[in-house]
Give the backbone structure.
Amino acid sequence: MNRYEGRRALVTGGGSGIGQATVLRMLREGGSVVAADVSAAGLEDTVAKAGDLAAKLTTVTMDIGDESSVRAGVASAVEALGGLDVLVNAAGILRSSHTHETTLDQFERIIRVNLVGTFLVIREAIPALREGTSAAVVNFSSTSAGFAHPYMAAYAASKGGVQSMTHALAAEYAKSGIRFTAVQPGSISSGMTDGSGQSGQSRGPGLPEDADMSLFMKLAPAIGQGFAGPESVAGVVAMLASEDGAFITGTEVRIDGGTHF
Ligand SMILES: NC(=O)c1ccc[n+]([C@@H]2O[C@H](COP(=O)([O-])OP(=O)(O)OC[C@H]3O[C@@H](n4cnc5c(N)ncnc54)[C@H](O)[C@@H]3O)[C@@H](O)[C@H]2O)c1
């Protein structure tokens, strides 16, 4: 499949996990891609994995929670690509804790990166996307936005916010030719869930030591052999942001092996 021939994409969180898998998928389908991440080491890993396809890959170090970093990062991405058709907002962080022990700083940091960061990148990218061809934005919600995930109140709230924002933006920019969709991954192996991330940026302490694991009894995939790889989400993201997704906007797709049906 060569659905990304001539297509220009910016992928945040492109240094690990699902974002990295999405960068590689879009490159393999012929796209020109800018991978952005707060982790320079993660971006180096993405370039190494791209191999010969790295000729069509540019990297940008960007902290999506920092307004000036996002301004500079998105501007340099648009310049490198000569415009923008696709934005994938995969960057995110997960922190787990008992809510009564969560500090305001910890709560606000998760909202800042996952929700405010997604807003900042979208805001900066909209002018270029309006000029783009069949423009599409794919945001990262989570199964936690709609199904109870204990010890993750701030994370769940941030992802619920991303999902609601996606619907509002889909309506607001429908006549500007920009589609907005979201994915809800769950049970996906990545730097966030198995600690293999290059930076450790996205992964905080695991569950509290005294976490009640019976609360997670429901949280197992119904199909497959446990967690799926990040490419299982990347393929869906690539479909949503391609011409194959041309009639899809203002909605989300859950990719969790039936963990939450
Ligand atoms: N893995 C899952 O099961 C799962 C489930 C639901 C949602 N998600 C979402 O999928 C997305 C991708 O996560 P993943 O699972 O691939 O994890 P990951 O840790 O492998 O990747 C996240 C990437 O985001 C980057 N990042 C973190 N903070 C950043 C910042 N401030 N600015 C720029 N980059 C930053 C990290 O450096 C990392 O490269 C996230 O939004 C996550 O919330 C994942």
